[in-house]
Write a sequence for this structure.
């Protein structure tokens, strides 16, 4: 079922999903840190 295009497509989706999650975690971390300083 999985050809080279399918594997590449899945890899790109997973890559962007991980980037998105890292951004959410980083933003949430900075928000909590800035709130603690107050």
């Amino acid at each position: 079922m999985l050809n080279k295009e399918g594997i590449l497509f899945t890899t790109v989706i997973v890559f962007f999903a991980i980037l998105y999650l890292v951004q959410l975690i980083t933003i949430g971390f900075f928000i909590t840190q800035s709130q603690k300083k107050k």
Remarks:
- Helices lie at 4-37.
- The first helix runs from residue 4 to 37.
- The mean pLDDT is 92.
